[in-house]
Amino acid sequence: MDIGTTVWPxxxxxxxxxxxxxxxxxxxxxxxYLQRAREIGLQQVRFDLRWAEVQPGEQRISVSTxxxxxxxxDLAQANGLRIVVSxxxxxxxxxxxxxxxxxxxxxxxxxxxxxxxxxxxxxxxILDNASYRREPVRDLYTDPEMRSAxxxxxxxxxxxxxxxxxIHGWLLAAGWERVRPPTDxxxxxxxxxxxxxxxxxxxxxxxxxxxxxxxLSSRAGLRPYDIAMAGGxxxxxxxxxxxxxxxxxxxxxxxxxxxxIVAGLLAEEVNDTAATQVVVADLGWPTAPWxxxxxxxxxxxxxxxxxxxxxxxxxxxxxxxxxxxxxAQAGAAAVWLTGMVxxxxxxxxxxxxxxxxxxxxWGLWAADGxxxxxxEAxxxxxxxxxVKHSLPTLPVEPDxxxxxxxxxxxxxxxxxxxxxx
Length: 421
Description:
Elements: E1 2-6, H1 27-40, E2 44-48, H2 51-54, H3 63-78, E3 82-87, E4 91-92, E5 95-96, H4 113-120, E6 124-127, E7 132-135, H5 144-161, E8 167-172, H6 176-179, H7 185-201, E9 207-212, H8 213-216, H9 224-229, E10 233-237, H10 253-269, E11 279-283, E12 295-301, E13 304-310, H11 313-329, E14 334-339, H12 357-361, H13 373-382, H14 398-403, H15 405-420
Helix pairs in contact: 1-3, 10-15, 11-13
């Protein structure tokens, strides 16, 4: 099982800096981050190519962003790391994120029924670049202008970088259901398959599609089967925002459960053993920056009020020691951990750090340059992962599951936790 992490380009020391910006970042700090990853034995790194930055206009690409991204790929190659690029993502950590031109009511909708439908959809707080907006999201799936913009981005980015030796694969359109819920999963499946085919046309030879607890709870969302049938590898996000109900903080049960559900569904629906080797993404736990903050804290996750548990570092280290071997034993293809390094406290006023405890403290290194306890636990685990694995044993009946996925996910989660006691 490969282990990787998510690395955002580190911000330069100036107040107007943007988080996860490839057009303006500390090149030396990124080199240091990637050297740390290589030294501890990580094999993969996920780079978020932030949509609002790389595509500031529907038919316009930021050259400075692509230049900076290219330098980041070269650094990864120099350190022997394989890069998974998140492209067309609608989230940035626990924050909803889209280009400003994808928001609002398009002119062609002003005199049609589409306007009424758009106004009836709840407005969400979305980070468009460096500021938040509360507007409806245009139809990302069928609007001709939106589809044209997507095709343009795939051509310009994948077409230019698909042959770079550091590229391992492309994670396409993660989190879209959170900003624009689909109406029918068959339409979602056709849309993602078309996106995947376009990516291959421009040179992508490895594609990933993502699901999470929210999409697995919806009858209309993209399903693991849809991704696999379109030739993609399935990723399940298990970030510290899983809507599985109250559970033990800083533990890995939810991650192992979600992996087992997705792998179990694929084992029943897809006649391909390789398809059950699911990637687990966003594994990590935010830690308390000060002892008095340990415990539950009010937070905001995907534009909704939430509670986040800030754990002590030793608890996170224990979770890493237990969870990674369990996922390896269950046959996970790879695990992508959450952030590499926490932002400094003076960067908390910059989006998305200004709204969420999760993204402030989920790193493996503290902001002061100190490795957290989880880093040393990771070092130990990487050298001792079990090689032999078995298929997940959690029984999942696809027909029953998809009739009422929200109910079934809760029911299976309760049964899973009861067996763990």
